[in-house]
Amino acid sequence: MPGTIVDDIEIIDAGHGGGTTPPAGGDDDGDSSGSRRPVPRRAYFTALQLGLAAIVMFFMALASSYIVRKGLGLDWQSTPLPRVLWFNTTILLASSATIAMARKKLEGGEREAFHSWWWVTTGLGLLFLAGQIIAWRQLAASGMLLATNPSSSFFYLLTAAHGAHLAGGIFALFYVMFRPWSRSRISQATAAELTSIYWHFMDGLWIFLLALLTLGR
Amino acid sequence: MVTHENGGHAHHAPTGFIQKYVFSIDHKVIGIQYLCLALFSVFLGMALSLLMRLHLAWPTAHWFFFKGGQMTPEQYLALVTMHGTIMIFMVLTTAPQSGFGNYFLPIQIGAADMAFPVLNMLSFWTTFVSLMVMVAAFFVTGGAPIGGWTSYPPLSALGEITGPGQGAGETLWIVGLAIFCAASLMGALNFITTLIDLRAKGMTLGRLPLTCWTWLVTAILGLLAFGVLLAACILLLLDRIAGTSFFIPGGLVITDQVVTWHKGGSPLLWQHLFWFFGHPEVYIAILPGMGVASHLLSTFSRKPVFGYRAMVGAVCGIGFLGFCVWGHHMFVSGMSPYSAFAFSILTMTIGVPSAIKTFNWLGTLWGGKIEFNCAMLFALGFVSLFVSGGLSGLFLAQPSLDLYLHDTYFVIAHFHLIMGVAAIFGMFAGMYFWFPKMFGRFLNEGIGKVHFWFTFVGVYSIFMPMHFLGLAGHPRRYYDASAVTFLQKLQPVHVFITYAAIITIAAQFLFLFNVIWSLFAGKEAKEENPWHATTLEWSIPSPPPFDNFGGVEPVVYHGAYEFSVPGAVDDYIPQNLAPDLVRKA
Questions:
Q1: Would B318 be classed as within a structural domain?
Q2: Which of B265, B282, B301 delimits the end of a domain?
Q3: Which residues share a beta bridge with B3?
Q4: What region, left, alpha or beta, does residue B535 occupy, with left being phi > 0 and alpha being psi -120 to 50 degrees?
Q5: H or E element at residue A3
Q6: Ordered DSSP codes for B19-85
Q7: Could you give the CA distance from residue A85 to residue A80 in angstroms, rounded to a whole number?
Q8: Which CATH architecture does the domain made up of A41-215 adopt?
Q9: Which of A8, A27, A179 to mutate to test binding with chain B, by most B CBs within 10 Å of its CB?
Q10: How close, in Å, is residue B387 to chain A by CA atoms?
Q11: Which of A61, A181, A187 sits opposite B273 (nearest CB)?
């Protein structure tokens, strides 16, 4: 068996991509002392980006359905958007600013300020969700229910889908705050960075959906 | 053992039964769990197909297992639906990728586990829940759905008025599928991250085994496709339970009832969403089989893979093109001839990377010292079935031919050969090859060869005649063709196919027996590397320890297929063998 008998050793160039020195593989940021390296920090960012790609595909399927359904059906009636949506949008944009501020404070070692800004972000997120529910109630009060018209169906569906994803972000905000990080695979700073990327993405996704619902009415 | 960012340890070998075998976070146990789930599903799916075949061969016969002695049309359609669903999602999607991929991808790249072990466990158990929800459809009022695995609206969206099984059964089907989407997304995310970020030192992309390349591309397809199917399932579910009209047009009359509560929807919208997922799904099923076949043809002909880079390019090309051709499933939907032309050209373009792969498989075999063991036989069978099934795809890619053949047995023959049976041959090849690594014992070669020949001849006997049924104009999905004059003369073909199916299914019990018997009494795999293979899984004990490499990270120096290297004593060079340890003649 190769490797067990080493009497007449001579290095040969095996070709096929082989070589005498091992070039870096997928993970070259650990040491090479022979002990198992940690799951690299960037794996979490890779996973987050992949997760966001899947979310994009999900929402693109809904958005393209929206466009096709509007183009095909003669029964499409524009759904008047509740004005509270603009207030909600402002809240969400503000939350992106506050989470950026929170991260800045964490990087600067100002933990109390970090906590404060993080809680503000969480509060704004919850306020946004409450605002979306108010928008639903206003729409329902005006007689536009889920099955009233394809336009209203998509309004409820898109806002609910976004709300569900944002609720996941709020869960992550609480998780970052309450997880005992000393026994975790990653640091609180990494978790905060991941959460903030997701949060900004939710912000951008909402702007896209709002543009679709407004311009595509 | 995985060290984490904060310097501690992520997980240790579990000791309790529940943690070790049920809610395990070990990728190897999870891989075996997926394989067990697929094994249960494949026998369930085969049983359903046997019932269909018995009825098609002898439509007037009485069977004790049917109430009243005979199968009803609705029961037949329910069997069609559940056979397709269970086979495609619970067998073809889970075993090659989630089963073998979970077990061997981390080891082949030199990692201790998947990047996110808990997510991995969650992915399996979500898949399990999905299977349970789908199977529950058999037991609810009205029984299993009758809408086929594609579940086309409007009939799938209108509930019980469209037939038994279209009530609670169809709802469970959709919910089960949505859960499956979530499980597959979790799995895909984990696979890609693991492959990108957890490769050992020296494991460059150019040294990855082709199995890993196919698992990677399959995971990317899953990541991008299952989100779309999930969205489609939600829309369909809302049409059914919330009164929306995404897919349901107005003016429908169903079983003498005018549907007034829906209007304006587009059934074609579902078809676009479904097939945007559905065609990549074909490659999700078949790509891992291509990886296994490439791997084994090289190993057992003792030659490097012919054109490694071209093979990688072909896998990526097939994956990319897989997203561009969904419209060829809709040629008969009344689409614009210009669209059909575009989809047709793109579909035929897939013939290019497919031909590259086939050519390179033959190039790998050419002049090799071929060892015809069971694993190799199934790998060769894979190539044969891929070519046989793929060639009919070129016919179906022509819109003018597809208009005639689309709703006939020709399509059944095509996709069963290339997507179903070829993929299953890939799994069998993988099982015979990796069984000694997974369980420390060999599968019995004698029983395995009987299994191979019965299966190989059997599947051709089942599906080749179906081409002729289709060419003769025999429609698919028909419960009973005996009342149609021009189809009556084709009945002997149905009888022949059913006999072939009975023999082929019986042969699968040989495989089951072989697995169970070999687990306890099979020949022991005393060597770590009994096949004299090159990849990293053969450098560790059989079965591998909990953390795969005993806490020591392997270093990779060679490509994955360094067989018969000129100047070397041995005809293979393991990937982790240091260059100064390679013996020169």
A1: no
A2: B265
A3: B9
A4: beta
A5: none
A6: IIIIS---HHHHHHHHHHHHHHHHHHHHHHHHHHHHHHHSTT---TTSGGGS--HHHHHHHHHHHHH
A7: 11
A8: Up-down Bundle (1.20)
A9: A27
A10: 28
A11: A61
For residue B156, tell me if it sits in a domain.
yes
For the segment A2-16, the average pLDDT, to the nearest whole number, is 39
> Closest Cα partner for A41 from B115, B138, B511, B398?
B115
Q: Does A146 touch chain B (CB under 8 A)?
A: yes
Quote the minimal CA–CA distance from B531 to chain A in Å.
Answer: 11
Interface membership of B4 toward A (CB under 8 Å):
yes
Q: Are residues B482 and B551 in the same domain?
A: no
B217 vs A: CB within 8 A = no
Q: Does A4 touch chain B (CB under 8 A)?
A: no
The answer to whether B552 contacts A36, with C-beta atoms less than 8 Å apart, is yes
Q: Hey, what are B81's tokens?
A: 């639906």
Do A139 and A83 form a contact (C-beta atoms < 8 A)?
no
Cβ B308 vs Cβ B298: under 8 Å: no
Is B549 close to A36, i.e. CB distance below 8 A?
A: yes
Note the pLDDT of residue B11.
59
A112 touches chain B (CB under 8 A): no
Residues B260 and B356 both lie in one domain: no
The answer to whether the CB of B92 falls within 8 A of the CB of B419 is yes
Do A50 and B266 lie within an 8 Å CB cutoff? no
Q: Name which of B375, B349, B376 is nearest B364 in CA terms.
A: B376
**How is chain B split among helix, strand and coil, in percent rounded to 5?**
65, 5, 30
Distance from CA of B66 to the nearest CA of A (A): 41
* B466 and B572 share one domain: no
The DSSP line for B186-246 is HHHHHHHHHHHH-PPBT--GGGS-HHHHHHHHHHHHHHHHHHHHHHHHHHHHHHHHT---S
- Which value, in Å, is the radius of gyration of the alpha carbons in chain B? 24
In this prediction the pTM is: 0.93
Contact (CB, 8 A) for B539 and B576: yes
Q: Name the B residues in 94-133 with CB < 8 Å from any A CB.
A: 109-110, 112, 115-116
- Do residues B156 and B131 share a domain? yes
The tokens for B176 are 């089960």
Confirm if B341 and B402 have CB atoms less than 8 A apart: no
Contacts of A140 in chain B (CB under 8 A): none
**Using one digit for the tens of pLDDT, what is the confidence trace for B381-411?**
999 999 999 999 999 999 999 999 999 999 9
Range of the domain at B560: 524-585
Long-range contacts of B72-76 (CB under 8 A, 24+ apart): B73/B479, B73/B480, B74/B143, B74/B146, B74/B163, B74/B164, B74/B165, B75/B143, B76/B52, B76/B479
Label residue A72 by pLDDT band (50, 70, 90).
Answer: confident
Does A70 reach chain B within 8 Å, measured CB to CB?
no
Backbone angles phi, psi at B167, to 5 degrees: -90, -110
Question: Which domain-ending residue is among B236, B265, B294?
Answer: B265
Looking at residue B365, which CATH number applies to its domain?
1.20.210.10
Return the structure tokens found at B32.
């075996």
Containing H/E element for B258?
A: strand B257-258
Are B447 and B335 found together in one domain?
Answer: yes
Q: Decide if B201 contacts B556 (C-beta within 8 A).
A: yes
B chain contacts of residue A75, beta-carbon cutoff 8 Å: 245, 250, 263-264
Question: Best residue in B186, B224, B536, B553 to probe A by mutation, most A CBs within 10 Å?
Answer: B553
| Inter-chain residue contact B264 with A26, CB threshold 8 Å | no
Chain B CB within 8 Å of residue A41 CB: yes
Give the phi and the psi of residue B360 in degrees, each rounded to 5. Answer: -70, -30
Q: Encode pLDDT of B185-243 as tens digits.
A: 999 999 999 999 999 999 999 999 999 999 999 999 999 999 999 999 999 999 999 99
Is B573 contained in some domain? yes
Which residues 80-109 of A are in CB contact (within 8 Å) with B?
Answer: none
